[in-house]
Amino acid sequence: MNALYQPMMSPLQLDRYFLKGLCFNLNEGYDRGRVSPDRFAAPQIEIGVISAEQDPERPSHWRFEVSLGLSEMPESDFPYHVETTLVGYFIVHDNYPPQHAERLARANGPAVLYSCAREIVASITGRSPYPKLLIPSVTFVQPERVEEAPGHPELPFCKPMRLTEGKGGAEITPSVGRREER
Known about the structure:
alpha+beta; Bacterial Protein-export protein SecB; five-stranded antiparallel sheet; 1 helix; 15% helix; elongated
């Protein structure tokens, strides 16, 4: 293979994960004739790191719980409602510098689970009679110091949304993919 670069093994490994909760409903009140799939306005997504726990007896072991769901909307404005929660167990490699291990785990553990949740949402909504929902990529890296870009306070990297424990967290606007005709 003639690759630009080769991946290397991450110092944070997913030991196991599971789907803790999943809710999907078609909204019966949605008027599919009123809105063209090309002009599909997706709602806000609520993302939260519900728990981030380090095992006190084994400090290299972490447990994260990540939840995401569509914000509440009138049934007539969006065709479906979806929520999901995933739990994952991770291990930081013993040779990784201990002073950086927590930041590595807190940034990458939730990102791995969020990636799984994105696929679940795209898969489920893609099997509905409406276009699939493609949730945008996010970062769980929390910058130590952030300055606003002059004249551009709307840029997401200028005003990061801290994902905190508990419900709520960041709200992200997803995109909706076009359903392919078969």
